[in-house]
Amino acid sequence: MPEQAPCPLFINGEWIISSATETSPVYNPSDGTQISATPMCGQEEASKAVEAAAAAFPELANTPATDRVQVMFRFKELLEKHFGELSQIVTRENGKTLDESRGSVRRGIEVVEFACGAPSFLMGESLENIARNIDCDTIRQPLGVSVSISPFNFPIMVPMWTFPIALVCGNTFVLKPSEKVPLSCIRLVELLQEAGLPPGVLNLIHGGKEAVDTLLTHPDVKTVSFVGSTPIARYIYETATQNGKRVQSSGGAKNYLIVLPDAEPDSTIDAIMGSAYGCAGERCMAGSALVCIDQAGEEFMPLLSNAARHLRVGPTDRDPDAQMGPVVTKAHLDNIHQHIQNGISEGADLLVDGREVRVEDTPEGFYLGPTIFDHVTPQMSIAQEEIFGPVLSTMRTADLDTAIEYCNNSGFGNAAVLFTQSGAAARKFRHSVNAGMVGINVGVPAPMAFFPFSGWNNSFFGDLHVQGHEGVSFFTRQKVTISRWIETKKRFF
Ligand code: NAD
Questions:
Q1: N or C: which end of the chain has fewer CB atoms below 10 A?
Q2: Measured in angstroms, how far is the CA atom of residue 207 from the centroid of ligand 1?
Q3: What is the DSSP letter of 481?
Q4: Of all protein residues, whose CA lies closest to atom 30 belonging to ligand 1?
Q5: Helices in 174-229 by DSSP H: which ranges?
Q6: Hey, what domains does the chain have and what are their CATH numbers?
Q7: Does residue 114 sit in helix, strand or coil?
């Protein structure tokens, strides 16, 4: 695709140029240049995509699961073949390091591998003789048109949380990626087309609120999967459920990392660094609040500050040694700066100031170095609000109970992590913590494709999460049949 041409839409098996007059810029965050433009589709184009998906549904629903998965097997092969290229696209439009992009594409591929098991996981249950001569069984059937609205931070992985499973379950699909990172999904859809996906089965549109609102209210849409910030996640859940859709809506997070004094130092520092600064902190699983218990603060904070000061920040699209890349846009960078300013105004100690980082060769990139606040109190905004950048807010307490209380009061509930050598402390933490994904000496406890991605509280609105068997339940509905067969007097067998 030529640079800065508006991104195409994919509707009913054809690539088309949007008639939208408004576009949104797409940047290479490493150097700040504009690399493309996202058309902000309106109601008409979003409706066309839904109608194409609705028209393709009856045929897909009638296709045996064993045939549906053949497309996924071919898709998986193409993803492996183009693995490097896909990772580079993610790095180019999102800014994460190539290693991080590779990891995220791999996570997406794992969902495809899980989806290839559809003939097994779609099997129903049955019980003979629930009463004399009466049998009961369940089958799973697709619902119709599914839509997915995704965020900027994982341009390939998050869209792939949903559509591979939805499609093998027999649903057709409309995908609406983030307007900030549309290029990765375009390549994914090209590969799906090459894998032999029939026209209309998956459609791609671009845009923002108008396109999304059309999807949320269209009568042919049956399920809505959303991933993004909490205010929008709540809005999506409320609007789509009011319109009769089944909804899974993942929101933002404030993930707590808690360190007991007995934690093993080297691996703990590595894990905290990876959690707080991996993907430049733009991860819904990023550790952004650190609680050091008792002596842990004295021991760990100097080690952590030293590691943070030495992390190499740079242009991930051209510097293979860069350990942390830029954030996604200048507007997002400005927003993170505002959070840092709020922390200073509230009286926290700015131990490491990432605003001092300079990247000489690409000064126009959207860079911020690792930032650490110490002596933060739980009431401060930097302890409560999602910053979504490389900023770590450190609190200190005397005991584990208080640390768990801080974590449980956050209102969010994605990840919570404890570093310790004590099995008893780990067990207590797992039991008491009010979050859906728990790490014990693991900084980013993100589950693999066959487990649910299990956010709680303000990090998730809905009942069935993405991935694994919850994903299968979300994209199917069960039909229970009760049959009575009585041998007649007239015997034919
Ligand atoms: P965002 O909420 O700004 O946007 C997400 C999607 O919603 C985009 O596709 C966007 O176009 C659309 N959108 C934006 N405003 C809208 C509106 N008013 N009405 C309808 N649609 C709208 O999120 P983002 O900045 O792209 O992504 C970062 C957020 O995503 C963070 O809060 C992060 O924690 C969250 N996230 C959560 C998870 C999770 O599993 N819980 C995973 C990844 C990211």
A1: C
A2: 13
A3: E
A4: 228
A5: 183-194, 209-217
A6: 9-251 (3.40.605.10), 255-440 (3.40.309.10)
A7: helix
pLDDT tens per residue across span 401-435 = 999 999 999 999 999 999 999 999 999 999 999 99
Mutational pocket test of ligand 1: of 152, 234, 282, 465, the residue with most ligand atoms within 8 Å of the beta carbon: 152
Site to substitute for ligand 1 among 153, 214, 327, 328, most atoms within 8 A of C-beta: 153
Question: How far apart are alpha carbons 150 and 414 in whole angstroms?
Answer: 17
* pLDDT tens-digit readout, 227-260: 999 999 999 999 999 999 999 999 999 999 999 9
Phi–psi pair at 484, nearest 5 degrees: -120, 120
| CA 84 – ligand 1 centroid, Å | 26
Residue 284 appears among annotated catalytic residues = yes
Cβ atoms of 10 and 24 closer than 8 Å: no
Helical (H) or strand (E) element with 35: strand 33-39
In contact, 180 and 207? CB cutoff 8 Å: no
Residue minimizing CA distance to atom 19 of ligand 1 = 209
Token pair recorded at residue 231: 């205010």
